[in-house]
Design brief:
The chain is of the alpha/beta class. It folds into three domains: about 70 residues, Ubiquitin-like (UB roll), CATH 3.10.20.30; about 80 residues; about 50 residues, no CATH class. It is built from eight helices and twelve strands. The N and C termini lie far apart (about 60 Å).
Length: about 250
């Protein structure tokens, strides 16, 4: 066995046992144990970690720990530029896409509302979520830290809030999504792009009163539903403005 000293910063402390939070502490490690193994053994999913310093030098997850090493573990940075340092992932995902665990179905719909491709099924097993995330380069959203510790999951977000709208704001803030949002582009049910249609294509698929009051319509080619700028759309527009900080004219959704 070897003994290393650990210090976790900011929200990573939420995953630690209370006596270990916000302070340096010594911990016994198996000889040759990697930084990733020990970080997760202490309760922190590797997907929550952005930077590891061992004795002041930036290292990757596979770095072996030795007697007397001092390990500093940091979450994603928002205000501090760490470009000169080595992040634990080689590069960010080119396209922001998600796969949500079973208990986050409501959040999946809100992310689709914001324009983010988000897969969700109440029957997804953890192994299936891991497979999807690995094969398609998706960010895993969950409140299950053990899921985020799975080996092939490289990008994930542990969602702390409990209420759907608060969770949406948390995800937007932590992943800096406001500039990437494209609201009202996806079907909330089918997760496929909406298509603008002429008024005559909406005849028989939307109420007569709606056809009299509105001129712009979109449809989902999968479920065949038609959407327009109704009262529900205005409520969703207000929610999107609150998380993106913008007010833009978008393709309408009912």
């Amino acid at each position: 066995m070897v003994t290393a000293t650990f210090r976790f910063y900011e929200e990573l402390n939420d995953f630690l046992a209370r006596p270990l939070r916000r302070q340096s502490f010594s911990w016994e490690c198996a000889r040759g144990a990697s930084a990733k193994h020990m970080i997760e053994a202490l309760g922190v999913p590797h997907t929550e970690v952005e930077l590891i310093l061992v004795n002041g030098e930036s290292v990757g997850f596979d770095h072996p720990l030795h007697e007397g090493d001092r390990v500093a573990v940091y979450p994603k940075f928002e205000a501090l530029d760490i470009q000169p340092l080595l992040r634990v992932r080689e590069q960010p995902l080119r396209v922001v896409r998600f796969v949500a665990a079973a208990h986050l179905g409501g959040r999946a719909q809100l992310l689709r509302l914001a324009g983010f491709d988000t897969l969700y099924d109440n029957h997804y097993a953890d192994s299936h979520i891991e497979s999807i995330a690995s094969a398609e380069g998706r960010i895993v959203l969950t409140r299950d830290r053990e899921l985020l510790k799975r080996r092939t999951i490289t990008h994930g977000c542990y969602v702390r809030a409990l209420k759907p709208k608060v969770q949406l704001r948390e995800i937007f803030d932590r992943l800096d999504l406001a500039r990437s949002a494209r609201p009202f582009r996806l079907c909330l049910t089918c997760n496929v792009p909406l298509r603008r249609i002429a008024r005559n294509e909406a005849v028989g698929r939307a109420p007569e009163g709606v056809l009299d009051r509105h001129t712009q319509f979109v449809t989902c080619d999968t479920c065949r539903r038609v959407f327009w700028e109704g009262t529900h759309w205005r409520r969703m527009r207000a929610l999107m403005d609150s998380v993106t900080g913008t007010e833009r004219a978008e393709t309408p959704v009912k």
